[in-house]
Amino acid sequence: MSAAPYRIVFANEKGGTGKSTTAVHVAIALAYQGARVAAIDLDSRQRTMHRYFENRAETMRRRAITLPTATFAVHEGSDADALDHMAAQLGESHDFLVFDTPGRDDTLARHVATQADTLVTPLNDSFVDFDLIGQVDAETFKVRRLSFYAELIWEARKKRAMASMKEAGKDMARKEMARKDMDWVVVRNRTGYTEARNQKRIDQALTELSKRVGFRIAKGLSERVIYRELFPSGLTLLDKGHLGELGTSHLVARQELRTLVAGLALKIPERGQLAMEAVL
Question: Percentage of residues in the chain with pLDDT exceeding 90?
Fold first, then answer.
């Protein structure tokens, strides 16, 4: 029986944070490194990630080329059991299972978030986005309380840790096999568009909240036209031989992507493993 795929969930109840773009680029980065990746889009209305992979498949067909990609599907409906069944089937023989969730409050998004091995929450550098995970004092900008979403993830992590300890206690030989605690990573996208004083306040608030809740902070992707231009073709910044001549800003964007993928600290199977430096 093969091991269950490692689950990466991209989730944010606010839209416009670059969530789908980040999810696609991370999935393709893993595929370029030799990992077998499957992807499920839970936003049956927007289908941004699903459409991106469809566009990629069409570009490969039209240009008669082969590129690293993911097995992909979109889930419709609100049945958690049906989603779990789809995830189990699609995840077979894959190393990673990537979920892209809607940019709104959604029952299934919460369901997969609590099951994530790595939960990635992209945020724009603003207190509007910060409000998703915590509320700050209007005068001091100190964190006053956790948001509902942060409490949800906090409780899910505690339950998961307790379940793992209980399972390990039954049979000490299985201790190493117990599923590890969720790694929650808050990814700061579009930081270049934040005023310096506001960015410092967000820095302090995120650092304070990360110590209380236990998430890590990673630098994400800046706002760049190239990402919107790549969507119709399904290409990514990783497809160096198929993008034409790249400008300086595109090279900087590629470095941002390298930093992001390294920051997620995802373990690639040794089979066919390539160094990220070779990929990017």
Answer: 56
Per the structure, how many domains does the chain have? 1
CA distance 68 to 37: 9
Task: Give a yes or no: residue 163 inside a domain.
Answer: yes
51-55, 120-124, 220-224: least confidently modelled range: 220-224
User: Is residue 161 included in any domain, yes or no?
Assistant: yes
CATH code, domain carrying 266: 3.40.50.300
Contact 118, 97 (CB under 8 A): no
- b/e per residue 87-99 (b: at least 16 CB within 10 A): beebbeebbbbbb
Burial of 196 (0-12, 13-18, 19+ CB in 10 A): exposed
> What is the pTM assigned to this prediction?
0.89
Domain-embedded: residue 1: no
Per-chain mean pLDDT for the chain: 87
- Answer yes or no: are the C-beta atoms of 5 and 95 closer than 8 Å: yes
- 24-75 per-position pLDDT tens digit: 999 999 999 999 999 999 999 999 999 999 999 999 999 999 999 999 999 9
> Does residue 152 sit within a domain?
yes
Q: Are strands 134-136 and 143-146 parallel, antiparallel or unpaired?
A: antiparallel
pLDDT for the residue numbered 175: 41
Q: Please give the DSSP secondary-structure letter assigned to residue 14.
A: S
Domain that holds residue 98: 6-279
CA–CA separation, 69 vs 49, rounded Å?
Answer: 12
